[in-house]
C-alpha cells in the first residue's frame, strides 16, 4: 500500500515538466533568453504536485535516482519542441551521479531520442548530502563534461554547498539561492555576499545565476554587482510546456518587448 | 627312667604300647630313648639294621619336640627291600611346667600314599567338580578332602584375580573346632606376586614348602599363624596349560618337613585342579552370558522371531510371544503364518523373500488398525540357516503424525481466521466513520436517523464479531499476575451500568473483597463482558441480573466461585452440552463466540465453567478458579 | 451533527493533516473535518506525511499507528518527527493495537491523545476540536 505514491509518480505522466526561463540581463544591454530551467511537478491533485513535497518525499524514500531519470525524461520530451538555441538546465541529485552508474548512459539515450544535443544541457547538482561515493561522483562529472554538458552547483552558500564542493566540482554556474536575492536592494550585507560570490565565480571562470528575482530593484542591484544571469517571478514563473512554447516563440520573433519583458 | 612310678600305670602303658600297630617311642631331655614298643624295635631293625635307638635323622625331630613343638614328618624307609612311606608324629610331655620327655609315633602310610594318594586326589577332584554345580562348593569340598586325607589343618584356595593381579581367597577350610576365626582372617587378605607364601608359589611357579612358619621371618601372616598355632605350610601353584590360575595353600599345626612324593602328588593335583577351575569358570561365564542374553532378548520390546527358512519359528522373545498370544511352547515350532491375516501374511512373504534371495528384506504392514515396520535378514550359523525377523510397531507414530497434521491444519485455519478478522476491522472502522460523516452531513430526517441507527448496529455487530474472533484466536501465552478478581469484576460491572440502564435491567452484585487470583486481567475482563452482555440481552425490562463472587473451600482446595445469572428464558436443555462450542449460539444477533471465549479464558486460568438453568428460571453460568495464596 | 455555520468551508483557519493508509478512512475524515470548516490535507504513508510536514504548517495531525507496517514503537516515529519540526502541532494517534506500553510511549514522545479504534467520528472530532481550541 505504501508504494502507491512512488509508483504513481514514476508512471508515465506522473511527472509534469515546467520550464522557467533564465535571462541574461546585462546592464545597458537588451535582455536575452539564456535558457530554461526544467522543473518538475508531481501528479496533479496530489500532495506531490508541489516540487518541495515531491522531492522531500523522494529523498525520504531514497529513490532520487529513479525520480531524476523520470524528471529528465519528461523534461526532454517536452523540450524537444522548444528552440534549440536555448540551454536546458536539469536538476540532478548528487547521489544520483554518485550511485546510479547507468545514469549517464540514460542521459545520452534520452537526449538522442528527443533530439537534444548534450552540449545544450546544464546539469544542476542539488542536495549534495553525503553519503555518496566521492570517486564515482567526480568521474561522473568528468564524463558529463566530456559529453559537452555544463555543470551548475545549486544552493551555493547554503548547507553543504561549501568551498570544498566548489573546488571538487569546478562548476560552470553557481546558482545563487533566493535567500540572498530577496531584500538585497535594502540589505548591504546581502550585497556583500553576492559580490563576494560573483568575484569567486569569475576567478573560477564560472557565472552566477541569481534565483528568485521578484522585482526590478533586485534585478538592478544584481546587474550592478556583476550578476547577469537571472530567473524569477519578476521575469516569469515556471511555465507548462504550451506556455513555454508560446513564450519562446514570442520572444524570438519579436524580441523582449513582445513577450512583455521589461528591460 | 624314674623311680616311684606306679606299677599299675606301667603295666597299662606297656599293654597299650604293644597293642598299637604304630611304632611308638619316648625320649628324654637328653634325647635318650627311654621307652619303646615292639613295632619300633622291628622298625629299627628292619630299616636301620640296628638295635632300638634313636636314628640320627630323627634326632632333629626329637629336639624340636623337646623345645615344645608338636612335629610331624614324612619319611621313606626301605623295609624288606621295598620303599615304604611313614609319617612320624611327635609331641612334648610336660611334668608341671617343664618338658621332660617327648613321645613319638611312626605309622606306615605307604598304601594310602602310593595306591590311593596320587590318583585318589585327582580322582576326587574330578568327581567333586563333576557333582558339585557351584565352583565354590566344589573348591570347598576339594580343600576338605585334601586336609582330611592328608592330615592338614587348614587350607586356602587362592585364585588369581585378573583385574587386580592379586591372589584372592576363593575358598577357605579349617578344622571344625577352629570355628570361623581362621576363615574370617583370611577373607580380606590379598597377595601380590611374590608376596607371602602363596605369592612366592605364584612367582616361582613351584611348590613352596615351609616346614615351620615360625622359622621364617617377614611373613605377612606370621601373627595369624602364631595365633592359630599353624606351623607347616605348602603352597602349590595351580596350572591351566602354562598359565597359573591360582595357588592351593595347605597348613598344619605340626612341623612338617617336605616329602618328595607328597610334593609330586600335590603338583599333579594342582594341574588338574587348575584346569578344572578354569573350565568351571568358563562354564559359569557362558551360563551367565547365556542368561544375560536371554534376559536381553526378552527385554527388547520389539517382537523378534527367529525362524527356519520354511518359516517355522525356532525362537522368539517375550514381545513376540505376546504378539502371537499363548505360551512360548505354543509359539516355538509353529509356522510364522499364525493366521491368514496381517501381520502374519506379510511376515510370511518377507521370509519367503529372504529365503529366495538370501538378502535382507523390509516391509511395512498395516493390519487390524496397527502399523508395523518389519525387517527380515538371513543368518547362517555353523549348522543352520535362519531368518531373523524384527518388527517395530509404528502405530503410535503414525497416529501422532496424523494428529499433528490435523493440529497444524487447525492452527493454519486459526491463523487464517485471525488474519481475516484483522484485515476486516479497518474497513469496518472506515465504514463507521463514513456513516458518521454521512449522517452529520444530512438533515435529521427521522427515516434517515433510523436507517443510520440500523447501519451502525450492523457495524457494531461486525466489530464485535471481529473482536471475538481475534480474541478467540489469540495464542495461549498469557501474562499472568496476581490481582483481585473483585476488582476486575467491579470494573466490568461499572462499565455496563449505562447499557443496563438503557435496557432497564438492574445488576445486583454480591462480591466478596480480597479474591486474589493469578490472572490475565484483559482476558478475564473480556470473558466477563461476554457473560454480562449475554445476560443483559436475555433480560426483559425491569428484570435483574445477579452476579456473585466469593471464596469456597472444597476437598481441601481453596477456590473462588463466580456466577452470572439472569432471569430470562434460560438455556434450552438440549443445547446445554454444546453451548460452549464456537458459533453454536441459537440467539440471533449474537456472535456465537461469546461462551467459547469464556470457556477458553477459564481454561487458561486453570478453572472450570458450567452453564445451566437456575431452579426458578433464567440462565446461570458458574466459574471456579484456584485461589491464589502468595508464599510467605 | 454539524451545524450550518460550521459547514462553511474555510470558516476555520486551522489546518489538519490526516495520516492513514486506508483511503476510505481518509475520505470519511476529510469530509467530516472539512464539513466542520477546517483545511484538511491527507497523507497515505509516513514519508509522504514527513514531506508535507517539512514544507507546511499544521495545527493538528491525526495519524493511524498502523502506518509503518510493523506496529510497535516504529509507528511512533511520526510523533517524534512532528515534535522535531513543529512543537505547536497537536497529535492524535489512532490505533487498533493500543497495548499499555505503546500508549505510554506515545505520550512520552509527545502525543496529545491516543484513541483506540474503532471510535465514532463524533468522538474523534470532539477530541480534535478540544485540542485545537487549547492552542
Which terms summarize this structure?
heterotrimer, B: 632 residues, alpha+beta, Beta-Lactamase, 5 domains, six-stranded antiparallel sheet, five-stranded antiparallel sheet, 44% helix, 27% strand, elongated, C: 135 residues, alpha/beta, Rossmann fold, five-stranded parallel sheet, 5 helices, 5 strands, globular
- From the N-terminal CA to the C-terminal CA of chain C, the straight-line distance is 24 Å
Tell me the helix content of chain C: 40-55%
Q: What is the CATH H-level superfamily of one domain in chain C?
A: Response regulator
* CATH architect. name of the largest domain in chain B: 2-Layer Sandwich
Main sheet overview of chain B? 6 strands, antiparallel
Radius of gyration of chain B from CA coordinates: 51 Å
Q: Helix/strand-derived class of chain B? A: alpha+beta
SSE pattern of chain C: EHEHEHEHEH
Strand content of chain C: 15-25%
Q: What profile does the largest beta sheet of chain C have?
A: 5 strands, parallel
How widely separated are the two ends of chain B? Answer: 102 Å
Strand content of chain B: 25-35%
Please report the first level of CATH classification, the CATH class of one domain in chain C. Answer: Alpha Beta
Average of pLDDT of chain B: 84
**What Rg of chain C is obtained from the alpha carbons, in whole angstroms?**
14 Å
Greatest interface by residues involved? B-C, 17 and 20 residues
Amino acid at each position: 500500500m505504501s508504494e502507491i505514491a512512488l509508483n504513481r509518480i514514476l508512471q508515465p505522466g506522473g511527472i509534469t515538466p515546467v520550464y522557467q526561463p533564465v535571462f541574461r540581463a546585462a546592464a545597458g544591454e537588451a535582455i536575452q533568453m539564456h535558457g530554461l530551467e526544467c522543473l518538475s511537478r508531481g501528479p496533479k491533485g496530489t500532495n506531490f504536485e508541489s516540487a518541495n513535497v515531491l522531492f522531500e518525499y523522494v529523498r525520504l524514500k531514497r529513490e532520487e535516482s529513479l525520480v531524476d531519470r523520470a524528471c529528465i525524461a519528461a523534461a526532454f520530451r517536452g523540450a524537444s519542441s522548444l528552440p534549440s538555441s536555448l540551454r536546458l538546465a536539469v536538476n540532478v541529485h548528487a547521489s544520483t551521479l554518485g550511485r546510479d552508474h547507468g545514469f549517464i548512459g540514460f542521459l545520452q539515450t534520452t537526449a538522442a531520442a528527443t533530439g537534444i544535443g548534450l552540449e545544450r544541457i546544464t546539469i544542476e547538482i542539488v542536495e549534495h548530502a553525503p553519503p555518496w561515493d566521492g570517486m564515482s561522483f567526480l568521474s561522473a562529472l568528468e564524463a558529463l563534461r566530456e559529453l559537452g554538458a555544463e555543470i551548475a552547483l545549486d544552493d551555493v552558500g547554503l548547507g553543504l554547498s561549501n568551498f570544498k564542493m566548489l573546488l571538487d566540482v569546478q562548476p560552470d554556474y553557481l546558482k545563487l539561492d533566493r535567500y540572498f536575492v530577496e531584500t538585497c536592494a535594502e540589505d548591504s550585507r546581502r550585497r556583500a555576499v553576492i559580490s563576494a560570490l560573483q568575484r569567486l565565480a569569475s576567478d573560477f571562470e564560472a557565472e552566477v545565476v541569481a534565483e528568485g528575482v521578484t522585482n526590478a530593484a533586485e534585478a538592478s542591484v544584481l546587474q550592478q554587482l556583476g550578476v547577469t544571469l537571472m530567473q524569477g517571478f519578476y521575469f516569469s514563473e515556471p511555465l507548462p510546456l504550451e506556455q513555454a512554447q508560446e513564450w519562446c516563440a514570442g520572444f524570438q520573433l519579436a524580441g523582449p518587448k513582445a513577450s512583455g519583458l521589461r528591460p | 627312667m624314674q623311680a616311684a612310678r606306679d606299677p599299675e600305670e606301667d603295666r597299662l602303658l606297656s599293654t597299650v604300647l604293644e597293642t598299637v600297630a604304630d611304632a611308638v617311642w619316648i625320649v628324654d631331655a637328653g634325647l635318650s630313648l627311654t621307652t619303646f614298643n615292639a613295632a619300633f624295635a622291628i622298625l629299627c631293625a628292619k630299616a636301620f639294621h640296628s638295635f632300638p635307638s634313636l636314628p640320627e635323622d630323627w634326632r632333629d625331630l626329637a629336639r624340636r619336640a623337646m623345645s615344645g613343638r608338636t612335629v610331624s614328618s614324612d619319611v621313606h624307609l626301605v623295609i624288606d627291600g621295598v620303599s615304604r612311606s611313614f609319617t612320624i608324629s611327635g609331641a612334648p610331655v610336660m611334668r608341671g611346667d617343664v618338658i621332660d620327655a617327648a613321645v613319638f609315633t611312626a605309622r606306615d602310610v605307604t598304601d594310602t600314599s602310593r595306591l590311593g594318594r596320587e590318583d585318589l586326589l585327582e580322582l576326587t577332584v574330578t568327581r567333586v567338580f563333576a557333582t558339585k554345580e557351584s565352583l565354590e562348593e566344589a573348591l570347598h569340598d576339594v580343600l576338605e578332602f585334601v586336609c582330611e586325607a592328608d592330615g592338614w589343618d587348614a587350607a586356602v584356595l587362592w585364585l588369581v584375580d585378573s583385574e587386580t593381579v592379586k591372589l584372592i581367597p576363593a575358598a577357605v577350610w579349617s578344622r571344625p573346632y577352629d570355628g570361623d576365626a581362621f576363615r574370617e582372617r583370611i577373607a580380606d587378605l590379598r597377595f601380590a606376586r611374590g608376596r607371602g607364601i602363596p605369592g612366592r608359589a605364584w612367582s616361582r611357579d613351584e611348590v613352596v614348602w615351609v616346614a615351620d612358619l615360625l622359622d621364617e621371618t617377614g611373613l605377612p601372616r606370621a601373627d595369624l599363624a602364631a595365633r592359630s598355632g599353624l606351623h607347616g605350610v605348602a603352597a602349590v601353584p595351580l596350572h591351566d596349560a602354562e598359565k597359573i590360575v591360582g595357588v592351593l595353600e595347605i597348613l598344619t599345626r605340626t612341623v612338617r618337613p617336605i616329602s618328595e612324593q607328597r610334593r609330586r602328588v600335590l603338583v599333579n593335583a594342582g594341574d588338574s585342579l587348575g584346569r578344572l577351575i578354569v573350565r568351571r569358570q568358563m562354564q559359569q561365564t557362558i551360563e551367565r552370558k547365556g542368561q544375560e542374553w536371554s534376559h536381553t532378548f526378552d527385554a527388547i520390546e520389539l517382537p523378534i522371531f527367529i525362524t527356519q527358512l520354511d518359516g517355522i519359528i525356532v525362537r522368539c522373545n517375550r514381545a513376540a510371544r505376546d504378539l502371537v498370544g499363548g505360551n512360548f511352547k505354543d509359539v516355538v515350532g509353529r509356522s510364522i503364518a499364525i493366521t491368514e491375516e496381517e501381520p502374519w501374511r506379510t511376515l510370511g512373504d518377507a521370509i519367503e523373500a529372504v529365503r529366495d534371495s538370501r538378502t535382507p528384506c523390509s516391509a511395512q504392514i498395516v493390519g487390524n488398525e496397527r502399523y508395523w515396520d518389519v525387517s527380515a535378514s538371513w543368518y547362517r550359523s555353523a549348522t543352520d540357516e535362519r531368518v531373523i525377523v524384527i518388527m517395530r510397531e509404528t502405530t503410535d507414530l503414525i497416529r501422532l503424525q496424523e494428529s499433528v497434521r490435523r493440529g497444524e491444519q487447525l492452527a493454519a485455519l486459526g491463523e487464517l481466521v485471525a488474519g481475516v478478522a484483522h484485515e476486516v476491522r479497518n474497513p469496518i472502522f472506515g465504514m463507521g466513520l463514513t456513516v458518521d460523516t454521512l449522517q452529520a452531513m444530512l438533515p435529521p430526517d427521522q427515516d434517515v436517523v433510523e436507517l443510520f441507527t440500523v447501519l451502525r448496529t450492523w457495524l457494531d455487530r461486525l466489530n464485535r464479531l471481529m473482536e471475538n474472533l481475534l480474541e478467540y484466536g489469540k495464542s495461549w501465552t498469557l501474562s499472568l499476575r496476581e490481582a483481585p478478581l473483585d476488582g476486575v469484576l467491579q470494573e466490568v460491572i461499572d462499565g455496563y451500568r449505562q447499557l443496563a440502564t438503557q435496557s432497564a435491567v438492574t445488576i445486583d452484585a454480591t462480591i466478596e473483597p480480597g479474591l486474589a487470583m493469578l490472572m490475565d486481567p484483559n482476558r478475564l475482563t473480556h470473558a466477563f463482558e461476554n457473560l454480562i452482555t449475554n445476560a443483559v440481552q436475555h433480560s426483559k425490562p425491569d428484570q435483574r441480573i445477579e452476579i456473585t463472587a466469593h471464596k469456597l473451600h472444597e476437598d481441601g482446595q481453596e477456590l473462588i466461585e463466580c456466577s452470572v445469572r439472569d432471569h430470562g428464558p434460560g438455556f434450552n436443555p438440549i443445547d446445554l452440552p454444546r453451548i460452549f462450542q464456537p458459533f453454536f449460539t441459537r440467539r440471533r444477533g449474537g456472535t456465537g463466540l461469546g461462551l467459547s471465549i469464556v470457556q477458553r479464558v477459564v481454561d487458561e486460568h486453570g478453572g472450570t465453567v458450567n452453564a445451566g438453568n437456575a431452579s426458578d428460571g433464567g440462565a446461570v453460568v458458574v466459574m471456579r478458579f484456584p485461589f491464589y495464596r502468595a508464599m510467605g | 451533527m454539524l451545524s450550518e455555520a460550521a459547514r462553511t468551508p474555510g470558516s476555520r483557519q486551522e489546518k489538519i493533516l490526516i495520516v492513514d493508509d486506508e483511503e476510505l478512512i481518509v475520505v470519511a475524515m476529510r469530509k467530516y473535518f472539512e464539513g466542520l470548516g477546517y483545511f484538511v490535507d491527507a497523507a497515505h504513508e509516513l514519508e509522504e506525511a514527513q514531506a508535507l510536514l517539512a514544507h507546511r504548517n499544521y495545527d493538528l495531525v491525526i495519524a493511524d499507528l498502523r502506518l509503518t507496517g510493523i506496529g510497535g514503537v516504529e509507528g511512533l516515529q511520526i510523533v517524534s518527527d512532528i515534535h522535531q519540526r513543529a512543537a505547536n502541532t497537536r497529535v492524535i494517534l489512532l490505533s487498533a493495537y493500543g497495548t499499555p506500553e505503546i500508549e505510554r510511549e506515545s505520550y512520552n514522545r509527545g502525543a496529545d491523545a491516543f484513541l483506540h479504534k474503532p471510535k465514532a467520528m463524533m468522538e474523534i472530532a470532539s477530541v480534535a476540536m478540544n485540542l485545537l481550541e487549547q492552542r
